[in-house]
Amino acid sequence: MASIDVAFATIAFKRKIAYKTTWLFSVLFGGWALLAGLAVWNHLIGDGEIGGYDWQSMKAYLVIGFLTTTLAWAGAEWDMANRILDGLVAIDLTKPVDFQRARAGEYIGGMMASVPAAVLGTVIAVLVFRPAGPVSPLAAALTVFSLLFIFPLAFGISYLAILCCFVTQRFLGIQWAKDSMVAFFSGMMIPIALMPGWLQGVAWAMPFVHFTTTPASIYLGRVDTAGALGLIAAEAAWAVGLLVLGRLIWRQLVKKVTVHGG
Fold it and tell me: What residue ranges are annotated as transmembrane (predicted)?
């Protein structure tokens, strides 16, 4: 089955890079968002600090946010959603390939197409803005390890979102809602440390926080080694839990599959 997974990922990867204009626009949009964030936070922080972030550490936080955002929003969500909206899911059910596993291969293939741009953009941002470095080589290694979980986490959340298409027969509103929740509760828009205590508790109780706050906290030393390992363990648990939840929901929804005109 591994060869089939690679095949699905390869097809999605080639499909993603085929639309070079859309791919380039997404990277440029993320770059402009990074510049806007740097301008705003530079004005707010100045020579002081906010929520424990001085200007150097905030620059690092924003660059990490750029990297994670570029990766998290680069999957093939609409390709998955359209298989349900167009009724192609009925054909998928006749194939000897697990639907969730096939969509995971396609999604990760789409995300992999964004890795070169994300890495290049991050390197340029580091060279130009010179943010704070990792507190230690171990913190740097653990940060990279935590970033790997963005792939299964992003897929797990997106897969649950596209399953809503069985009920809504629409995806755009669902995508907007999902993207807004990820942007806010991950700390991409506002660092979690600046939120009220009760809202921080809500954020840490959801998987979205691991897209930006977790790698940034590890990188900047806001948690010790034990805390970093705990956060990575929580990421892994969410990744597995979301996949299991998606499979359970799929088993219930697929019983009610209807195809227009049939």
Answer: 21-40, 60-76, 107-129, 141-168, 180-206, 226-250
Pair 113, 26: CB distance under 8 Å: no
* pLDDT tens by residue, 161-214: 988 888 888 888 888 888 889 889 999 888 999 999 999 999 999 999 999 999
Q: Report residue 106 as tokens.
A: 């396609």
User: What integer is the mean pLDDT of 140-162?
Assistant: 92
pLDDT in tens, 89-104: 777 777 777 888 888 8
Residue 93's alpha-carbon distances to 1, 88, 146, 150, in angstroms, are 17, 9, 34, 28
Only one residue has tokens 């930006």, namely 212
Q: Is the torsion defined by CA of 105, 108, 112, 113 positive or negative? A: positive
Rounded distance, CA 233 to CA 219, Å?
16
Q: How far apart are CA 118 and CA 148, in angstroms?
A: 13
CA distance 235 to 72: 14
